[in-house]
Amino acid sequence: MSKSKGTAALKSFYDVVISGAGISGVTLAALLKTSPFFKSRSVLVLDKSLPNILPAFKSTSSNSSNDVRNYSNRIYAVNKSSLDVLKRTGAWEVVCDDYRHWPAYQMQTLDSRSRKGFTTFSSADPDEPVAHFLESEVIVSSLLKTIENHSSNLAEKFSLTQNSITQLKQYPASVQLTLETGDRIETCLLVGAEGFKSQVRNLAQMKWFSYDYKHHALVGTIHVECPDGNKAAWQRFLDSGPIASLPLDRNTASLVLFAEKSKLDELVSKPENEIVQTLNSYWTQDFGYDPKFDDVLGILSKAVENFSGYLDVRNEEPKPPTVTGVQKTTLATFPVGFGHAVHYVKPSIALVGDAAHRIHPLAGQGANLSLLDCDILFNQLEKAVRIGENPGKCSYLLEYERQAQTHNVPTQLFCDLIYRLYGKSNSPAVMLRSLASFGVNNLGVLNSAFVQWASSANNSFAKMASNRQ
Length: 469
Known about the structure:
eight-stranded mixed beta sheet
């Protein structure tokens, strides 16, 4: 794949132009690379800043003297469906050969207002993780490596250029783009993959519904002690916002803390030992348990045990990791919001990833939704070109929109509901979520359904690759 800083001459026409070289844009480019139907098609990826391919680095011990690069604070939980996408591009093999990643076999959620309000989600297969945790740069680097190593003549068909779109003009079967360098190019399909501030979406005047949550998120790298070898992802809901610990290796985790920005800024300004002390208090402090919740759920547990002895009634709240240190240089805050494009497509234009939808990160589904978008769109593009149609043909883009929104909208609304439900400290809200947690923990069908949703996104979409005709 050719890679230029924007000075190399561009062709006047590309079959597909992807704006954005983040996870969504590079994933779609890599998927197109795998298709025999796109071998003769040209693809251009544009971005204001070109991503760098990381050198191979596989250390998974925070105490190793070989650690030459700190973990990034942009960590993603890759579920089974996303893993399948990366495997089909060849990127997962690159990750396993060259880069560090870490599996989680459980997801643990705790409620600071109810000792019985915890929920444990475990993989149905003890040898199969619920998710793999890895850095954003690792995903992008592995995808770029698969594109670069695909074949010697790929440079003429796949180009990555430092440039951005300043104007676009739609025609019946194509889009004309004006770039910041003044170049004009035409394409059958323009894909916006630049994130929730998408330039393509703005220039195409595609309606966007959004609002900001009252919280910001603090992210960074922490050191932890965990008796289970740090093989679980943890989250505890506080009145001020959730806190999460995402495993990176046996003694390292990624911190995510949601709160008002002023509170986060105050925390970051403290010395490291005080930050560690505060974080541990968030995981263990009693924030106002109401004994009657424990009493009611205790009675319910006994009833379930007596009625259905085969059910594994879980009564003891699991113990979260202990924070032992924090890398202050990795701490950073960002705003959290909700956003959704009313339509993902227009004639010869499509949006993927955060350009189409912005989700609260508390469930770790943002990257997975983005990879799912790319997979669905790729399938529709391949169907179109297989029978000689234009890859930007509107009927195929509309089918992509239908399939993607069928999964994305309920997932976004569910995460928004969880955020709002756990943001309440009144008794009815605490009792409702405690009962929900009890049900998910102890009714196998509910637990399995949630794990299936969280670890596999939407199985009907995940199977599409194997069902291609």
